Fold this protein.
Amino acid sequence: MSSSKPLDLRLPTPGCYADPERAGIDADAVFDGMTEHLFFTLGKLAPTASLHDLYMALSYAVRDRLMTRYLASMEAIRAQPQKTVAYLSAEFLIGPQLNNNLLNLGIQKEAEEALRRFGIESLAETLEVEEEPGLGNGGLGRLAACYMESLATLQVPAVGYGIRYEFGIFNQIIRNGWQVEVTDKWLKGGWPWELPQPDEACFVGFGGRTESYIDDKGNYRSRWIPNENAIGVPHDVPLLGYRVNSCNRLRLWRADATESFDFYAFNIGDYYGAVEEKVGSETLSKVLYPNDGTDEGRRLRLKQQHFFVSCSLQDMLRSLENRKISIKDFPKHWTVQLNDTHPAIAVAELMRLLIDDRYLDWETAWEITTQSVAYTNHTLLPEALEKWDLGLFKSLLPRHLEIIYEINRRFLQQVRLRYPGNDNILRKVSIIDEEGGKAIRMAHLATIGAHHINGVAALHSDLIKRQLLPEFTKIWPEKFTNVTNGVTPRRWVALANPKLADLLDKEIGPSWITNMELLKNLESRENDSNFLEEFGNTKLSGKIKLASYIHRQSGVLVDPSSMFDVQVKRIHQYKRQHLNALQVITQYLRIKNGQDQSLAPRTVIFGGKAAPGYFMAKLIIRFINGIAETVNADPDMDGRLKVIFLADYNVKLGEQVYPATDLSEQISTAGKEASGTGNMKFAMNGALTIGTLDGANVEIREKVGEQNFFLFGKTESEIMDLQNANYMPQSYIEELPELEEALHLIDLGHFSNGDTELFKPLTNNLRTRDPFFVMADFADYLRAQDSVNRAWIDKKEWNRMSLINCARSGFFSSDRSIMEYCNSIWNVEPLPVEITCDVN
Ligand SMILES: *Cc1c(COP(=O)(O)O)cnc(C)c1O
């Protein structure tokens, strides 16, 4: 690294923002940076520094090395105005940051060397102490994180907007087989990756009333007089792309109480009243809601949504005003993507900001809104579709309700013209649900306000059109599209599976990491025994690491040569962990009955959190742990079957699990899983899938080939037929003695220390209602598991199939997804960032 002349930090020259001496990327410079941060930032001397101190020092040193790129990226947009993606999401499950930044900067080796000089032998040891920000529940939040990573890597200017929850998704511990939730205090040790920007704070109102008035020009106008306020303080996280200068911003809003509003309370001596309001608004960004699908009518959640959406839209408008760009050009500069309906209030809030605050007329404001906003649907499950009780909504957002009524009135007018006399269709498409208590349907608001609505896998997008929003599809067929989800190969292959990454580098060269279609080149090796063995060894190495983790966590020894059969994801009935668990019981019974000749030795691994209020999901966790206890303690099972429940499944643990898996369980009821992304992470890392025709499984099977995928189960239309034909689970049970016996054994208390009542709610549910068709799919699932067992016998053939899965997984890179969003929804171009001075 060299620099011709010292840079004056007080007077940054365009394109040149930092003292390159402070941002060098060789091991010496990283070491110096760490030393400096230990001393000046952390107030520690090297000899007494803890591992956590060294993690912090290294993180600050790495963050320094992002700053030039980050500021240059922000400056590039300012200097050369062009369209920026605003990705609005209530969740960003970004995972640990240090190793990702090291990888994307290309300084993992240098960091390791710097650590060595502090007496730390491995980078891994340091990475281990990083606390992950649990700012998401699962797939949806992780998708937002993969997309932000791909946006930066593809050099597309983007801002992620979300909430800086003080407490993220709870930590899960298992006590007596049950899930226990523990508060996630992820900020307690200090989190070095965020930059608070209090000078860019925004005000947000709640409650109060609206009033009409006549402005100076004699126009009738409305305004909102809230009776409660909060301040949003941006906390920015720089997100660097892979080996590029583009470093985008994740802007997370923290809610602070307003003070100015409460002078009155202080004056009349109501000190506690004033403090109460402060406590109230600080609670706003306190905690992430677990998605139990039943949080309808939760006031605080609606407040959170409006809070972060309002701050974000104000921030976008302000950015135009700062650059002297006309508000009417908003759609040329911002494309606003709604990650599910959680930010759908954006449609009404943008209208309000444009009409009430910027004095635009309705038509102009509506044009701006509908040209800017697009909506991604993530679920068809009726209980997960957001609806807000009208009374609640009105009490919190009275002006938004008026605006929504007007949006609805104009929209229904259009529909009436198209379908004269058809009141039925009006009822179906209205934003207001008139059945039962009146409620606001957020999916309808988003659909009416968006220029595109997309599903997240081909089947899902098709079902949106056919089942969820058929009337809207007739009205606006051109609005509906599909973008199949993807995952970033930087985190899910390069970071998570370094052994595989090395092999890929050696075999096809390093450009696979940004061009995953190149993995196809692996196919030429499908019959090369030596290569297949080498490929298989990368898997073995992942399994050895996971086995050691399992031993450390639970004391259970698992055999890395057994088949690692894995289902990790949120626990939900539609995902059918209980189908898998029941299948384990039949395997157990076969071994007990001496019919295990053809069974492959398996380690069946489960992991995932249940929403705290979801009784059946928590019972399924208890059930899995009951089976694990019985199976693992039985000497007859030794070397044949082990069952593990991994506590506290999160991104960090996922990085250990996906590369260590032989068999990926993707067994949701057809039509229920919108896409899934775990399925993609597994396939990229060479796992074979056993799965239903659901979500992206359909496309995975298409890509990897049907011979390399273990398919089972009823199709979505067969499930629909069953549902409409008075489904009787009992008839399926009667046809299958093995299933009958498994259920009977559970009811005898065999997996619950003799407690015959514990799992009754589960077995009764399966015998009588079975809402997710576990019984209907059981026989075919067993058949597919039998073919898995047969395939496992021929290790070379298994490795060949595994290689093909990896080789054909390129389509599931989030780079491909993001390119599709850019081209077919956002109409944005990359903006390569130049850094003219000589850094690095
Ligand atoms: C990928 C991922 C998910 C989503 O998994 P699915 O199998 O698609 O449900 C959930 N949680 C974490 C931590 C993940 O990394």
Observations:
- The CA atoms of residues 43 and 418 lie 70 Å apart.
- The chain has a mean pLDDT of 93.
- Residues 495-713+736-744+776-812 form a domain with the Rossmann fold fold (CATH 3.40.50.2000).
